[in-house]
Amino acid sequence: MKIKSIISALALSGAMLALPGCEAELQPDYERVYIGEAASSRFVKMQIEGTVASETKLTVKLVKPQSAPVTVTLGIDPALVEEYNAKNGANYLTLPAEYVTMPDKILLEPNESSATIPITIAPYETPNDEQYALPITISGVDGPVHASVSSSSLTYLLDKPLIQWVPQMTWRCMPKSDESKQWKVSTKDWSIECLNWKDNYTINNQAIINMVASKEIYIRFGDTSIPYNSLQVKYGGSQVNNPTLFENSKWDHLAFIYSQSAKELSIYVNGKKTGKLDIDTETIELNGISIHSSGQAYNRGNSRMAQLRIWQRALSESELTANMHAAVSPNAEGLVAYYKMNEGQGDTYKDCTGNGRDIVCLYAPQWIEGQRFDGK
Fold first, then answer.
1. Partner residues linked to 153 by β-bridges
2. Domain check: are 303 and 230 in the same one?
3. Cα separation, 255 vs 343, whole angstroms
4. What is the pLDDT of residues 220-236, one digit of tens each?
């Protein structure tokens, strides 16, 4: 097996991993073998950077040294990635084995209590900017001990930063979907999320998202009664002002989530809930979108956007935070339209869901290379 760059570990969630067999369950704790790093958490984040290999270490430990040798077999278990995704609304994929280099068998000699093994992750690229995870588990033990019930697996969540081309738009661009091709998407719940950047907040009514819908969904910076660098969201005849004050030339993740069952429109800025509107609406129909399209009178300076996603369901908070600086699958459940906005040239932002709901600019934007969104 083979793996990539500089790794910083951040402990995340933990859960029990049940191993089959009554013998293992009933065995005394001192007759166990486990992964040392999994004692506090079975999931650890690893930041992947650059174009060189990443290296880390994993420790296989015995609770008590044994008088006989113990051979531990390590394997990769994709079910651990599925478990994490299900609990956290993430969409990690299991890292292909060819990127990982590590020993699959570790020998603990008599009276030895631990062994440290190196793990190397080779540089990798992914066709759709997927995030990978490396789920390592103790798959077998030869000797007088059994694998620990709770600490026999460790999943490295390989967070490779999203870096891409983005469009820089002025008022002339006027990007919008084809008005003659209505989407006709009926939904009770909806979510809109994007990465957004502006270098100028000197006037009110700088619209960033205007949905063509049976009930108004209109999101803008500034109004006559609020700071020009704060958000206002209009929905279904009501509106809510958001207290966050945005900085010039800084990337922010914005999300707007409506849940009909909760009768609430929630606003999230960089993964944190910053405002809400209590409103009860029935099913609405989504038929198109325009972005950064206030026109010459109100759209000042330059605007950038990336990873614009429209959903016909209410995203969970964990799902939102897991993916706000990452790409998602174009086939994700409930995804109505998805614009990565990474084309690097031209006047069209492609809808990568395959639904054909492209956004086209009246005038082509300037394309900016190598944008990173996590502030690092």
1. 137
2. yes
3. 23
4. 999 999 999 999 999 99
The total domain count for the chain is 2
- The range of the structural domain enclosing residue 23 comes to 9-159
Residue 208 lies in a domain: yes
Residues making up the chain, counted from first to last: 376
pLDDT tier, 11 (very low <50, low <70, confident <90, very high otherwise): very low
Closest CA to 157 of 335, 260, 3, 373: 3
Average pLDDT over residues 124-147: 92
In this predicted structure, what is the pLDDT of residue 29?
57
Q: Are residues 221 and 77 in the same domain?
A: no
Q: What is the pTM of this model?
A: 0.84
Q: Is 293 helix (H, G, I), strand (E, B) or coil?
A: coil
Mean pLDDT calculated for residue range 13-38: 58
- Please check whether residue 1 lies inside any domain of the structure: no
Which DSSP helix (H) or strand (E) runs through 322?
Answer: helix 317-323
Residue 293 CA from chain centroid, whole number: 27
**Residue 178 pLDDT > 80:** yes
Are 155 and 231 part of one and the same domain? no
Task: Say what the alpha-carbon torsion angle 154, 89, 308, 126 is, to the nearest 10 degrees.
Answer: 30
**Matching residue, tokens 């339209």:** 337
Q: How confident is the model at residue 16 (pLDDT cuts 50, 70, 90)?
A: very low
Q: Determine the pLDDT at residue 31.
A: 82
**65 and 112 in contact (C-beta within 8 Å)?**
yes
Contacts of 23 (CB under 8 A, 6+ apart): 146
> Do 305 and 345 have their domain in common?
yes
For residue 302, what are the CA distances in angstroms to 70, 165, 222, 356?
63, 15, 16, 27
Identify the domain boundary among 116, 144, 159: 159
pLDDT number for residue 206: 96
Question: Do 47 and 177 share a domain, yes or no?
Answer: no
Phi, psi of 251 (to 5 degrees): -80, 135
| Spacing of C-alpha 261 from chain mean position | 25
CATH number at residue 192: 2.60.120.200
